[in-house]
Amino acid sequence: xxxxxxxxxxxxxxxxxxxxxxxxxxxxxxxxxxxxxxxxxxxxxxxxxxxxxxxxxxxxxxxxxxxxxxxxxxxxxxxxxxxxxxxxxxxxxxxxxxxxxxxxxxxxxxxxxxxxxxxxxxxxxxxxxxxxxxxxxxxxxxxxxxxxxxxxxxxxxxxxxxxxxxxxxxxxxxxxxxxxxxxxxxxxxxxxxxxxxxxxxxxxxxxxxxxxxxxxxxxxxxxxxxxxxxxxxxxxxxxxxxxxxxxxxxxxxxxxxxxxxxxxxxxxxxxxxxxxxxxxxxxxxxxxxxxxxxxxxxxxxxxxxxxxxxxxxxxxxxxxxxxxxxxxxxxxxxxxxxxxxxxxxxxxxxx
Length: 351
Prior knowledge:
- With 351 residues, the chain is of the alpha+beta class.
- α2 runs parallel beside α4 (133-145) and α3 (104-118) packs across α4.
- The protein is built from 9 helices and 20 strands.
- The longest helix has 18 residues, at 163-180.
- Helices cover 26% and strands 36% of the residues.
- The chain is elongated, with a radius of gyration of 25 Å.
- The strands form 4 sheets. The protein has a 6-stranded mixed β-sheet with strand order 6-7-8-3-9-10, with helices on both faces.
- The protein has helices at 39-47, 89-99, 104-118, 133-145, 163-180, 191-197, 215-220, 225-230, 323-328, and strands at 2-10, 15-23, 28-32, 54-59, 62-63, 74-77, 151-155, 183-188, 200-205, 208-213, 235-245, 248-253, 256-261, 270-275, 281-283, 291-303, 306-312, 316-322, 336-341, 347-350.
């Protein structure tokens, strides 16, 4: 559907460097990364607001690298929605269709269809300056979809919304994608949005795409220390492979032996072990986990509806624990406690 080959562009203060990416037809693809990674600039290259210094952009095998934006048949939803303040909701939605000389009957039919899907029938004659943030987003979506784009590009579509509105609109966006059946490319720094919406995710850092995968691959199998830290994994342990038996490895971490699974590393090789805090089990045993260690609680920090417990086991471990588990296990700073984790939960990368 969309193929990007070796795309690079230099601005005065930022560079996108050698980006290659394939996005499938009908996919909900999320470009996820920290602020300043170049995510919006990549969207603007795809939509045609800039011409790249190097590389090619293809849609359905057609090279569109040098085509003007209006000929690319792409819908673009800006972060601030960019509604026309001097036009009503209806006139905003029909604007792109009128530019394309679409008949009045087709315009009426499309507006009826989109207003029904997005539940904005009652807003048609409203002034856009009187709309709430959620209503503005829906109107901007209707305007972007009205021209029947092959691809809809979304630049931080939820960033201006409060948490309650955002939580209502995320499932509606997923449903809209399913009903429209077109390709969505959604830029965000929100890991929650990526997990809830994406079929696949591209992690972007420092002007390039560093990993692409489904949400489980991204959040449980990051391929570098930097990506692991970005997806909120603090359990990154430096070690050395000291024994190998087929796919089973024994890794020495500060004198402690950890069982992991991989056939890509040799005895004597330096590695990093990565594991999410949710995969660390605290308690007294009764688990099939291959790895068990005794430790002492360093700190207990509340994070919303769960707690982060840090434990010194000879190497520092971070576990995500429910309030109920904190109370049942009487976890407090200084308490001795056992930790467990499965060999299959560990991601192993080169050091």
